[in-house]
Amino acid sequence: MSFLELNKVTKVYPNGTKAVHETSMNVENGEFMVFVGPSGCGKSTLLRMIAGLEDITEGDINLDGKLINKVDPSERDVAMVFQNYALYPHMNVYNNLAYGLKNRGIDKQSIEQKVNDAAKLLQISEFLQRKPSMLSGGQRQRVAMGRAIVRNPKIFLFDEPLSNLDAKLRIQMRLEIKKLQQKVGVTSIFVTHDQVEAMTLADRLAVINNGIIEQLGTPIEIYNNPKSLFVAGFIGSPQMNFIDGELKNKTLFAEGFEIKNVQSDFNGEITLGIRPEHMSQSDSGLINLSVELVEQLGSDNLIYGELKNKKDFCYRCPGNQLIEKGSKISLNINDNNYYVFDKSSGNRVN
Amino acid sequence: MTRFFTSGFSHLILFIGIFIMIAPVWMIFASSTHTSSVINMDGLQLFLGDSFYENYLRVLLYQGGFFKEITALKMFFNSFIMATGVALLSVVTSLMAAYALVYYRIKYATLLFWIIFITILVPLELRIFPTYSVMAELNLVNSYFGLIVPISASAIATLFFRQFYKTVPDEMLESAKLDGANPWRFFIDFLVPLSKTMIVAMLIFMFVFGYNQYLWPLLVTSSEQYWTVVMGLKMMSGSIVHRFAFVMMSMVPPILIIIILQKHFIKGVFQDK
User: Fold this and answer.
1) How many angstroms separate the CA of residue B174 from the nearest CA in chain A?
2) Which of A288, B58, B144, B163 lies 20 to 30 A from A80 at CA?
3) Which 128-167 residues of chain B touch chain A by CB within 8 A?
4) Which top CATH class is A238-342?
């Protein structure tokens, strides 16, 4: 039995909107699970159902072997970090951390011990007497995490906690969250719409779209082996290139080129997906690109251009490979690193 | 130079305003420290006399009323009880009413709120007869309870607290829930401290409101034991200096309340920033 089990969990709002469809998944003890998807896909709803802040319309949620569908949020032993931190503005940091412990009837001495330990771990000891309004964004973020850690819950829930921070701080806090989770070893679920955050933080991630888990797996599995067009487009930066075409008897016909011996029995209209980093320049390549824009990132260059049919296309090459704006280049796909999707259903067919 | 001129000019206007407001009060105060013969002969006085102690003490302790049962001291006590009662009770009831309206899933909560709000259009004077008959029925005429309760539901305070609660982010409630706060704890540990500034403002407002009541105390008290200061202003007989002294003293409690509570009020405002 897994630590957290979702069994056909469904959420229908009173107005009839179906936010989550029969979602099932298991999260193991100590695992860092990330829910990633575009806004409005139901990932936050799912998280809030685990927290007990939303009622479950159908299905079961088991935490540590106990059915928690009807258990009050305060008794689920979960801690949540909110997007806007939801710190208590009228309490100082110490009391923010201690509040949940006080409500659980823990004696004063052990509260002090626990708060001080958590504060030390998060390096906020010197701010304990300050009010949240006197803290910077990163410090508030730490306090919010401290409030979760101090209770030593069964599970941490993070609801897009980094989206209020500026880019630099976000990367820093991302690392800190990951380190902290590894140090504390508490099962965590992290909701984000940022695929970089998802890839870097997750032990496993669930790509969610329209209330359905499109794919569940380790970040690298999902990157290497996307099961659907949506997942392929969502994971990876810059985004995967998509070209419409047709598959007939293992031969793929796209505008201007064809690929033979495709490992698929599918026949019909398809979408071909190629990651920008899975190509290399050659004199007689499959894909011909007229370069319109070059982004030099230092380590890499991102080459943006148009195909013959005016579709946008991106190619990523090492930073030392100079390609000029306005030139025409020819690209080959490395090691058959391409993905074929059924155009109508979006399912992977190769 | 222009700056000096404009700021000097606005200060001048302020001083004129202060003078217009303070001058009559000062004249009453100055006059109240003279003997009545001075006032009768020379009219109102601009400078302090030497009968302050004598006049004020007499007013405080003089047995007044038809039955000689009431002193000014007792009136102050009554007024203080009434105003404090009205202030505390109306703040507590409106805090709780607003809490229920915003946080509980009450059907037609908005409609209910507007019904409460409409009561602003029905002043005490309009419902004074039924209110009196209810109080008489309940045997509450001539009691502090009867003085306080009928004017202790404030739609305005409910409006203020409701609007404030609506600005409290939902995450705060959710976070508190996860921290094990039940509805009562959420109210006491979160909403009350967060609305402290507003509570103090409402306490001042409702204290002055309760203190200034005239018609209701007049109606609901037939015993002189329950007379209030504002009633006393009308009932007061005696020489003009004593009446002046009483008028001066009647201003003290509201001013004191404002001075005492204003500190918290301002502190609250600045802490929030």
Assistant:
1) 7
2) B163
3) none
4) mainly beta
**List of domains in chain B:** 1-50 (no CATH), 67-270 (1.10.3720.10)
B175 and chain A in contact, CB less than 8 A: yes
Q: Where are the beta strands (DSSP E) in chain A?
A: 4-12, 18-27, 32-36, 58-63, 66-67, 78-81, 155-159, 187-192, 204-209, 212-217, 241-248, 251-254, 257-259, 268-274, 279-281, 287-296, 300-306, 312-318, 328-333, 339-342
Report the predicted TM-score, pTM, of the whole model to 2 decimal places.
Answer: 0.82
CATH superfamily of the domain spanning A4-227: P-loop containing nucleotide triphosphate hydrolases (3.40.50.300)
pLDDT in tens, A123-179: 899 999 999 999 998 899 999 999 999 988 999 999 999 988 888 889 999 999 999
Taking contacts as CB-CB distances below 8 angstroms, the residues of chain B near A133 are 272-273
Residues of chain A with CATH 2.40.50.140: 238-342
Segment (H or E) for A145: helix A137-149
Q: Which of A222, A216, A227, A332 is nearest to A274 (CA)?
A: A332
List alpha helices for chain B, DSSP H. 2-31, 36-42, 52-61, 72-103, 109-118, 128-137, 144-148, 155-167, 170-178, 183-186, 192-194, 196-211, 215-220, 229-235, 240-272
* Nearest CA-CA distance, residue B96 and chain A, Å: 20
- Span(s) in chain A for CATH 3.40.50.300: 4-227
Long-range contacts of B102-110 (CB under 8 A, 24+ apart): B102/B162, B102/B165, B102/B166, B103/B165, B103/B173, B103/B183, B103/B186
Which residue in B105, B168, B170, B179 has the most chain A C-beta atoms within 10 A of its own C-beta, making it the best mutation to test that interface? B179
CA within 13 Å, CB half, A22: 0
As a whole number of angstroms, the distance between CA B185 and CA A240 comes to: 51
